[in-house]
Amino acid sequence: MSTQLVTEGAAVRRRSARAHAVYALGPATMLGGVLWAFLQPYRVTLLHPHGQGFWWLAIEPPLLVILAGIVFAFLVAPGVIEDLEAAESER
Q: From the CB of residue 33, how many other CB atoms can be counted at a distance below 10 Å?
């Protein structure tokens, strides 16, 4: 194995502040949904269903916020970060 290949493989890429901010949006949104659910537990009817149907139980605002954070973190953020890094490498 050539030392040149090892040196190139060991190079660590640093992300910009913008990339870190985009990466943090998904977890911050999920945390906001969890905090909302704890601060206003009466909004989560999973705790007291009282004969409600599935959609009434599944579609709750704090749960939707958590879902939006998950979708952003795993589907949207990687592409945005890739585009940011590509734009910064062109500079």
A: 21
Tokens representing 58 are: 């599944």
37 within 8 A of 43, measured Cβ to Cβ: yes
Contact 79, 11 (CB under 8 A): no
Give the span between the Cα atoms of 26 and 17, in whole angstroms: 15
CB atoms under 10 Å from CB of 25, counted, come to 15
How many residues are given for the chain?
A: 91
Task: With a cut of 60, say whether residue 10 has pLDDT above it.
Answer: no
Q: Among 31, 49, 48, which Cα is nearest to 39's?
A: 31
> Would the pTM count as exceeding 0.90?
no
Sorted by sequence, the CB contacts under 8 Å of residue 43 that are 6+ apart come out as 36, 37, 60, 61, 62
